[in-house]
Amino acid sequence: xxxxxxxxxxxxxxxxxxxxxxxxxxxARVVLLEGAPELGGRGRTREEGGFAFNHGPHAxxxxxxxxxxLDALGINPPGAPPATSNAxxxxxxxxxRAPVGVLDLISSDVMPAxxxxxxxxxxxxxxxxxxxxxxxxxAAALQRLTKSLPAQxxxxxxxxxxxxxxxxxxxxxxxxxxQMRLANQGVxxxxxxxxxxxxxxxxxxxxxxxxxxxxxxxxxxxxDGDAWRVLREDGAAxxxxxxxxxxxxxIAATLAPQVPTLAQARDAAxxxxxxxxxxxxxxxxxxxxxxxxxxxxxxSPSTHSPRSASPPQVxxxxxxxAISRPVSIQRITHAKVSKx
Length: 340
Description:
By secondary structure, this protein is an alpha/beta fold.
């Protein structure tokens, strides 16, 4: 006999787990199908040698949609903001003090005085709500905002690190400026990585009555009368009144080819690919250098956890679990937009 559910969710990442929790809380009979051996998707955290490594670059925005959603579910992942007091800009291999405050702007030699003033004025305008025109790219919007090329370059670097997109000639100005303003309201690096947040989401969904299944890879989703038929790769099938495809656009379009809007979304999407290298260190060669932002290249090395305390006083770090020796996690991220 084929299983029948109110809601079937394909994908056990953050979006899928969130959908499962809310649907189950609303009284629906919910099943979630995740093809991998564990839940989490890109929110997974793995441990190696006592260090916790996130699956990709992550920061929880204090005023973002994810934080509001977690609040609604009663989830408050512990963490702390990244260290930005000792931040630098990188240009052609050289480090310059980042202008994160008025004094830094005055003392930094990253650009001439006139360009510093232009950068400060443009940054203030963005904070005050400067936005793009309909259909305007971020490159065009910044040219309209300031004529200073060094100021534009510095602003593009800030936009890259908040959006993971360096497609200045095609990315929408309004979307990226909104994202930059959101980043300026603060982010949180989570204690122990994002795995703890994933576990809390899964617990919330299960507590509400959702059934979460791993190693349940879906082959297709088709219409079956008034319901939907979800066929797994192992041949098992179930029906549901509603299906949530919590997957990337290309996978969603492949699973349900009879839904034309999914193919349209796939064809319209331009993927952003970020190469992220995490390095676990037993000591920091230069502890004062916590963060650097590339201006000539879309690279942003940063320290994602502070030094843990030596034994017997073992402290909890932000992206590595507390262990009995001084440790730190450093991340180097390079983002680009894929060509079609």
